[in-house]
């Protein structure tokens, strides 16, 4: 973990983006080539790319009923009840996000409103690289189901045996996905965006993935909608003296184990507390299965930021706008109003980020890389669209003719003005 003072944090923000830009340009070249192949050759390209990147030759990349049945037999007896409990909590939380159409006719002669309509076809990407995430299946499929999406398909990379991780399949079945395709990478995003002989084009793509998946989502945006361009996982913990050092360390490491690019940050104003947390991190890391990944994440991206007080800590946390923010401080709910930018906020010593990943109910698909400053977690609202509804009767329109004409002519849009004036003239002729 790097150690920074608050002043060093602010000055470190002024840095070159040349290396990052170079990496993105390299990835973009590969991704654009993959997208071109899928657009031109459909299923044939998807099969070829799956063979190239995953070493798998597939006659059919649609998961069959027999494969779903086999998956149910392969998961542990305790897995399904845990999945059902998570599903219940996630469903309960997201049902509160459901938006309704509305109509306002309070002004005589005028009807205004908003029609809320679910998307028809949605594609969800579920990673299958360093780890498989059945929880992510629930977090994406359940809001889409609540919104009323008609067709929900999942793409996820095949395992070396040519099959999909059984936990992902069981989660997909329980959540209510309609179809699962065993394809991954940028080729899966392209197939969802443009369609192939097997896969119907969708209207929106959601779900996290590696750098190639993220860049593919960026390049197909506009052809389809996307949820966000998710970066590596990140956690920021603001900890005072009441936070147990072993708790803080465990929570930092829980995000570091995602991958080497994950970012664990701890903001403290007590040097002794920071030292105790670092010692705990070193002790716990040696006991964890993903020790190598954690070590690289912590060494490359981990930071302790030593500040003057809680309020400087809040300022820096807001500037970071982290994916996950834990306030492990005394009476955290009293300080909640100071937080403006965070994907999810966890209050107190017994609300670890891992609780949000699996069981609490709020969505764990969150904005990363500072985008929490202007973005929100995935929700039911991401799977719905809105249409404005406008109806004026004759007299209501005539009452506003002069005002509309003035605005239209000011903008030199005379055809707009004429579309209004012609109705006024028609009324005058009728009266004559």
UniProtKB/TrEMBL annotation:
Cofactor(s) this protein cannot do without: Zn(2+)
Pathway linked to the protein: Amino-acid biosynthesis; L-histidine biosynthesis; L-histidine from 5-phospho-alpha-D-ribose 1-diphosphate: step 9/9
Group of enzyme by EC: oxidoreductase
Protein's UniProt name: Histidinol dehydrogenase
SUPFAM superfamilies noted in UniProt: ALDH-like
Biological function: Catalyzes the sequential NAD-dependent oxidations of L-histidinol to L-histidinaldehyde and then to L-histidine.
Similarity field: Belongs to the histidinol dehydrogenase family.
């Amino acid at each position: 973990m790097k150690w920074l003072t608050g002043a060093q944090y602010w000055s470190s923000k002024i840095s070159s983006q040349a290396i990052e830009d170079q990496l993105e340009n390299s990835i973009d070249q590969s991704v654009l080539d993959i997208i071109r192949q899928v657009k031109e050759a459909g299923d044939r390209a998807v099969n070829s790319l799956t063979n190239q990147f995953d070493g798998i030759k597939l006659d059919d990349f649609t998961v069959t009923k027999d494969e779903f049945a086999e998956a149910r037999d392969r998961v542990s007896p305790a897995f399904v009840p845990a999945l059902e409990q998570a599903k219940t909590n996630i469903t309960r939380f997201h049902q509160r996000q459901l938006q309704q159409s509305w109509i306002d006719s309070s002004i005589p002669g005028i009807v205004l409103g908003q029609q809320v309509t679910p998307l028809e076809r949605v594609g969800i990407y579920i990673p299958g690289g360093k780890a498989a995430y059945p929880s992510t299946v629930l977090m994406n499929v359940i809001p889409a189901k609540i919104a009323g999406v008609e067709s929900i398909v999942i793409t996820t990379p095949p395992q070396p045996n040519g099959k999909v991780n059984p936990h992902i399949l069981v989660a997909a079945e329980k959540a209510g996905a309609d179809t699962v395709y065993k394809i991954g990478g940028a080729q899966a995003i392209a197939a969802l965006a443009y369609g192939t002989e097997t896969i119907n084009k969708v209207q929106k793509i959601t779900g996290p993935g590696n750098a190639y998946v993220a860049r593919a989502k960026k390049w197909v945006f506009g052809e389809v909608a996307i949820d966000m361009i998710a970066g590596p996982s990140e956690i920021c913990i603001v900890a005072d003296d009441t936070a147990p050092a072993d708790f803080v360390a465990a929570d930092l490491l829980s995000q570091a184990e995602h991958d080497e690019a994950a970012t664990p940050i701890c903001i403290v104003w007590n040097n002794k507390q920071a030292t105790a947390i670092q010692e705990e991190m070193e002790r716990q890391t040696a006991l964890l299965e993903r020790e190598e990944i954690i070590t690289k994440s912590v060494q490359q991206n981990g930071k302790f930021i030593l500040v003057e007080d809680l309020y400087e800590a809040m300022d820096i946390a807001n500037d970071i706008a982290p994916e996950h923010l834990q306030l492990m401080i005394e009476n955290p709910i009293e300080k909640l109003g100071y937080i403006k930018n965070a994907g999810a906020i966890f209050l107190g010593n017994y609300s670890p980020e891992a609780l949000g990943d699996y069981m609490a109910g709020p969505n764990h698909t969150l904005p990363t890389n500072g985008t929490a400053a202007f973005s929100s977690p995935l929700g039911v609202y991401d799977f719905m669209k809105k249409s404005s509804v406008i109806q004026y009767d004759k007299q209501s329109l005539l009452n506003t003719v002069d005002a509309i004409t003035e605005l239209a002519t000011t903008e030199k849009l005379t055809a707009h003005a004429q579309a209004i004036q012609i109705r006024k003239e028609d009324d005058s002729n009728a009266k004559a």
